[in-house]
Amino acid sequence: MNIFLTSQASRVLDKIVEMLPKPPRELRVAFIPTASDPYEEHPWLDEDRAKFIELGFNVIDFDLKYKTEDETRQALKNFDILFVAGGNTFYLLSEARKSGFCKVAKEMVEAGKIYIGSSAGSYIACPTIEAATWKNPEKERFGLVDLRALCFVDFILTAHYKDKYKDAVAEGKKTSRYRVVVLTDEQFVDKDGKIY
Fold this sequence. Notes:
The chain is of the alpha/beta class. 32% of the residues lie in helices and 17% in strands. It is built from seven helices and eight strands; from the N terminus they run E-H-E-H-E-H-E-H-H-E-H-E-H-E-E.
């Protein structure tokens, strides 16, 4: 089992650590902050990074922006965990395609590397990012029209669930051809769709 998708990684990393094959000090984390690039402030990013470090992981940042596929492959090849942080899902998917990350990440996950997503990083692990349009239809899409994503799992998810989103999520479920997993900030889901 090598896929863990979260709404807010810092809230659930303690539990994910128990499911990893080695202790944190023996695992190298590629911390991919790209989704936060459109924002001046990103406290969620700082919280996630601080939690990884607190737990003892070896954490190194790698921004996908302006990278080629070769640069991405070379930079990431020696990491055990790909951590893709939250922010703008549309921007992230656009940059993941341009940088070759979509292809490189698939190769790495198929080879047994671990993928942990937080919010936007979780959305792009799904077959599509359509659920990112449900709660905030006006969100900046950075010209992205094709919403197909990495397909690491066979469901789509909606993150940061609260009761106020109940109707928007219900409407989204009606139009999706995929099973929908709903996550609060205190939950995560594995590749089989089991929620913890």
